């Protein structure tokens, strides 16, 4: 179904305004507005986070249940499996949801996706698992990669809202919603493992006297802008944010994702040794700096600590002073 007019267009709702959901929902509202479709409905635990979205024309609702009652297609992007389960329960308890489509863009365990899909289907609606690849900046730019799985009727209904609206491409994983979650977890294994190795290399460069600047130049020249951007999260001090700032890929989310990855690997009879090291360093960083807002790259601070260096580089200290 393509939103070409207010008469034909479905009502779309959005749940969750974290670092990813904020940019995604704003791009979705811009599309709805330009298409002369009904304004996006939204809700969030802290409604004030939706003020920029409201400025674009979106309309707030006080609860998930209210949003579910009023919406035909419901998107969510929430922090973890427990929140997704609670959200699905509230949608199912909102009233008759037959014919509705619920799309979740969160990173959760495949078993959670399967459980939520069954719950939604039993209530007469359709569920699409649609986790995304990309950081908050890519969400704001509408350049995410969606990994979708669910009934073909549902994925067809949501297609107009993905490519060239919130994302740049879609990877279709068929009807088994657990497969989209598995691919997202596999991608995060790569991302976090890259960061673990780059952090180790930067500590090596500092301890040997090679220096971070020349290492970063080599990383960019050899491996390209993506790996270089990971390096810059270290060299700019973004791994440990200044007080009051919020991480793009928060350490708590990275820890959750690595635990999911290791759980899936164990169930499959395999092992992810770099992910094990990354999880250990993430947990150590959280333990060393419990009051600080930490990025997923903050494993760098833990690796520095193991090497006898200060958790914070001089860049962090100069910034914070």
Through-space gap between termini: 54 Å
What overall form do the CA principal axes indicate?
Answer: globular
Taking the sheet with the most strands, its summary is: 6 strands, parallel
Order of helices and strands: EHEHEHEHEHEEHEHEHHHHHHH
- The fraction of residues assigned to DSSP E strands is 5-15%
Radius of gyration: 21 Å
Helix content: 40-55%
Individual helix count = 14
Given as residue ranges, the uncertain stretches (5+ residues, pLDDT < 50) are: 1-6
Structural class: alpha/beta
Mean pLDDT: 95
Number of strands: 9
Order of strands across the biggest sheet?
3-2-1-4-5-6
Organism: Xylaria arbuscula
GO molecular function: NAD binding; NADP binding; oxidoreductase activity
Domain 3-hydroxyisobutyrate dehydrogenase-like NAD-binding: 182-300
InterPro entries: 6-PGluconate_DH-like_C_sf, 6PGD_dom2, 6PGDH_NADP-bd, HIBADH-like_NADP-bd, HIBADH-related, HIBADH-related_NP60_sf, NAD(P)-bd_dom_sf
Give an overview in words.
- The protein is of the alpha/beta class and 321 residues long.
- 53% of the residues lie in helices and 11% in strands.
- The protein is built from 14 helices and nine strands.
- The chain has helices spanning 19-34, 51-55, 64-70, 81-92, 110-122, 136-141, 152-158, 177-208, 212-223, 225-235, 251-268, 273-288, 299-306, 314-320, and strands at residues 12-15, 41-43, 59-60, 73-76, 101-104, 126-129, 132-133, 144-148, 167-172.
- The strands form two sheets. The protein has a six-stranded parallel sheet, sandwiched between helices.
- α5 links the parallel β5 (101-104) and β6 (126-129).
- α8 (177-208) crosses α12 and α12 crosses α13.
- The longest helix has 32 residues, at 177-208.
- The termini are far apart.
- The model is unreliable at 1-6 (pLDDT under 50).
């Amino acid at each position: 179904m393509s939103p070409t007019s207010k008469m034909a267009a479905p009502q779309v709702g959005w749940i969750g305004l974290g670092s990813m959901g904020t940019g995604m929902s704003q791009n979705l509202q811009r599309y709805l507005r330009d298409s002369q479709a009904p304004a996006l409905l939204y809700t969030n635990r802290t409604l004030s986070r939706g003020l920029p979205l409201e400025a674009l024309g979106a309309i707030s609702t006080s609860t998930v249940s209210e949003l579910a009652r009023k919406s035909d297609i419901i998107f969510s992007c929430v922090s973890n499996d427990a929140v997704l389960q609670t959200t699905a329960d509230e949608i199912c308890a909102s009233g008759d949801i037959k014919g509705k489509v619920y799309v979740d863009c969160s990173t959760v365990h495949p078993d959670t996706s399967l459980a939520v899909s069954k719950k939604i289907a039993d209530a007469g609606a359709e569920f699409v698992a649609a986790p995304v690849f990309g950081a908050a900046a890519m969400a704001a730019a509408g350049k995410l990669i969606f990994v979708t799985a669910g009934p073909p009727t549902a994925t067809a209904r949501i297609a107009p809202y993905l490519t060239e609206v919130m994302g740049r491409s879609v990877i279709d994983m068929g009807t088994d919603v657990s497969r989209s979650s598995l691919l997202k977890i596999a991608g995060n294994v790569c991302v976090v493992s890259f960061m673990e190795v780059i952090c180790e290399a930067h500590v090596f460069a500092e301890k040997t006297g090679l220096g971070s600047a020349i290492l970063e130049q080599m990383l960019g020249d050899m491996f390209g802008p993506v790996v270089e951007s990971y390096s810059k999260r270290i060299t700019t001090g973004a791994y440990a944010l200044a007080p009051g700032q919020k991480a793009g890929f928060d350490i708590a989310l990275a820890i959750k994702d690595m635990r999911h990855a290791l759980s899936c690997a164990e169930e499959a009879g395999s092992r992810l040794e770099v992910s094990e090291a990354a999880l250990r360093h993430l947990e150590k960083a959280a333990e060393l700096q419990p009051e600080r807002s930490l990025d997923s790259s903050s494993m760098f601070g833990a690796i520095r600590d193991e090497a006898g260096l200060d958790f914070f580089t001089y860049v962090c200290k100069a910034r914070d002073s």
